[in-house]
Every structure is written in structure tokens, then in C-alpha cells.
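Predict structure. Input: CCHC-type domain-containing protein, 561 residues.
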Amino acid sequence: MDTDMLSSPLRNAISREVSNAISTSQQDLLNSIYGIMDSKLTNLQTTLQESQQEISQTQMAKMEETLTDNYTFQRGRATKTNSNSSQLGWKVVNEYVANPIAEDSEDERKMLRAQSRAERKSKAEKTKKSIKPRQVPYARNADKDDSFKPGKCFNCGKRGHWADNCPDRKQKINDGLGGGKDFESCQKSSQFVKFQLQKLGFLIAHEKCVWDPCQKLKWLGFIWNTETGRIFVSPERIDKAEQTVNYILSEIGRGKVLLKARILAGIVGQLISMQIVFGDLVRLRTRFLYACVNGRASWEASVKITSEAIDELEFWRVSCRARNSKGVNISTVNFHDNFDVDLFCDASCLGLRQHVVEIVEKSTVGCSGELGKLAEKMSVYLIQSKSDNTTKKYFASYNRWRSFAQGYGFNELPADPIHVSLFLTLLIDKKSSPCTLDSIIYALKWVHELYGYVDPTNNAYIHSLAQSCKRLNGKPVVKKDPVTSDIILELCKINEFENDLLIVRDLTMILIGYAGFLRYDELSSITCRDVKIFDDHISIFLPRSKTDQYRQGGKKMRFRS
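Output follows.
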């Protein structure tokens, strides 16, 4: 119990000491804060007073400057404004400065008057400087070339002239080669030809001509060596052909099997032009390259290179220079066997003639003599089972399918219905019209019937795609207003006294077409001998009509009204 009594006073003493310490600390902290705030406020007040004094002095100085030099300040501002904004510039300023200002209220008026005076003076100066009309024409500059033409020449690609006046065309009139038994006779012939060409007024490219007789020269891309009696392809052409072949093979080596048709046609043309030296081998070893080129949709379109075409390219890469090193004997070259045009004709580019001939050959009758000629005519008659316009339309549609099939490696004939469906899907995606799809479907049906194959268009997918195209890409039919008799009568009344033969002809065609319900192609095929005029009617014979597919002809009676 004593311990508790001792502890209680002790506890109270400790509490008092702690309270005193806290109070003392708080008082010291407040005193410190008061001291800091007093010092800061004093500094702030001093700074504000100094700043206010400086601002006041600055304003007073500006006011004094303005009051003492008011006119100069205002005038300088007006002068600066007008010199920058007016089109006449400092002319207005000079007019403004030359006339003193009476008061500030007339400053703007003075400025407008100064600008008006400056504009009048400027117009007067321009009138004084105007050039009077010349009594004589300008002297023509003899050094100026009036023959300069804009753009590029289509012949040589250079600027300054057009193809009609191209210097290269004038110089490259013809390439010729002459010779003789000995040097003297050859020299005499050369001088005679040169003299006659100059006498006739031809422009000769002397830098490209060889007038001195020699036994080895370059002509038409070939090296003619009369000393050894052989002909070689020029090295430049061999290098170009090898570069083209290496480029194509390098593209194929990188996995690219689709190349521009123009590139393949270029290498084929280069090889064919070397036929004089290489012989018929160039035609034999470019057949598959030709087939690739013929499958093009356009010259810029890509075509697929077949494995056989790649073998041909590999052959010419190795053999081109080796075969040219041997050359060919000049005596074996027969120029009469080289034709400008090689014409290969088949039944409308479908290969139908060859197909018909093969079928006849496989039959028991064979295909020799007269039967062979009949087999060839049969293909032509099969094509003529349709009208010319229909046949042309079917050919164009079938060629579109052929390009698609060859581009993706499909078999074009006989066609797979799934492949045809994919092709029609592509056309629908390109927003082709229903007429385009119908034309392709009918063309495929017709070609397969000619070859005796199963019709690939008789497929549920193809029928559904045709209906889908009509729903998605079809356009509403907008019917035209019919022509009435009142319109015809009004047209005749307007041209009642017309003497122009063309107008009378057109009006006659309109009347006959309206009376007989004739089409324009039927009217345009009528000639004078087809028309017979009687007292009470007109008889017209229609030699061709859409309703007369088998050319039986028919007479139409046109009665007078």
C-alpha cells in the first residue's frame, strides 16, 4: 500500500513535467513562426513598394514622352501602317507627309486623300509610258529555230522534233549490201551507189555506212565474213539473249513461276531472229515458250512458265553461244525461204480443226485424200452454226476462262465444274454484270458441245452463282417511253419543207421502222433493189433479220396511210 502511495505522487510529478515541457516547446515553436512571418512580410512589403515605385516612374516617363511628342508619334504610326498595307507603298506616305495635318480628327481623311492622289499619279505615269501601236512588224530573229516541237519524238525518243521530221527516219531509209568479184569492181559499185543516193537527195548516215570494200562487216545484226564464207550472230545480240535467259532462270530459281508475257515474248523474238544461223532448231526449241506467251490475257499480264519451257530456256542458256561459234555457210542461206509473215490458221483459235481431224483419223474411214479436206471444212461449218456476232462474243468469253485456267494451272478443256465455279465467283466479286456471267456459261457450254465433252455448266453451284449475280450485281430495268404516232406526226411537220437529203433519209427510216416494227440492223441492211414502190403500197424485202436466222428472207408490206 505504501508503494502505491509513493507511486501516485511520482506519477503526478512526471505528468506535470511532461506538460510543462510540451507547453514550453509549443510556445517556442509559435515564437519562431511569428518571427519568420514578420521578417518575410517586411521583405515583401519593401519589395512591393520598390516595384510600385518603378512602375509609376516608368508610366510617368511614358506619359511625359507622349505629351511632349504627340504629333510625331501619331504620324509615325500612321506612316508605318500605310507603307505596309497600301498597294502603292511609300508613294502614299510621301503624299501624306507633304500635306501637314490640322488636327487629329482629320488624320484618317488626310490619309485617304493621300492614297487617292498617289493612285491618280500612278495611273498617269502608266498612261504616259504606254506603248504606241507599231507601224511596222517586229524584226524576225534569224537565229531562232521555229522548227522546235514540244514533247518527244515517237521514233527516236528525243526532244525538239516530231516523228515526221525525225533525222533518224530520214537517214534510215533502207539498209543495203552490195559486192563484187574483186576489189576494183566492188569499189566501183560502192561509189556508184553513193553518188546516185546523193543525187536523188537522200540523207546518208555516213558514220553508219561502210563504203570501202571489206571481207568482214556487221549487217542486220549478223557478222558477214566473206573470207571464210560464214555468217555469225553479232556478239551484242548473243549477250543480250543470254542476259534475258539468265534473268528469267534466276527469277524461277527464287520460286517465281509467274512472269510478264512481254518478257517471255522478248526472248522468243530474239531467238527467232537468229534463225538464219541456228536454222529451224529455234522453232523446234521455242514451242513451249510460245504456248506460255499465247496464254496471256494482255502483254502486261503474268503467265505461268511450264517445266517444258524451263527446259528450253536451259537449252539456250548452254547452246546459244556454242552454236553461234560454228556459224553457218553463206551458200546454204536461201533468202527466198524467209517470209515476212507466217500465217497459221485454225478454226477460230479453238484447235477445233485438229480435234475434228483426229476424230476422223481414229474412225474406220481414215483421213486421207478427199476425206481429209472434208474434215477440215467440217470444223469451219461447225463454227458457223452460230451467227458471227454470237461466235465473237463466245470466243471473247472463252478466252477469259482460258486465261484464268492457265494462270492457276487448271485444265481449260474439259473444264472442271468446281474450277468454273471459282472463276464465276471471281467475276461476281469484281462486280461483273449478269450478262457477262451468262455469256461465259453459254460459251463454255458451246465449246464443250463442239468437242463432245460433258457440259460443265450443268451444275448446281453454277446455276446458284448465276442467280446470285442477278441479285447482287443486277441493275433495275429502266423502260423507255414508247414512240407514239403523235410524235411521228410532229416530227414530220417540223421537217415538212426540209431539202437536206440526210434529214429526209433519216425521217424515211424512222417512218418505215415505226410502221413495220423493224430493228436498226434490219433497216441498215436494206438497199435500193430491196424496195419496190406501187400505187397503193410499198414492198420491202429484208435480206437479213434477227428473226430470220436461216436466211430465208421475207417481204414486208407497207401500206400508205
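Confidence is low (pLDDT under 50) at residues 69-86, 335-348.
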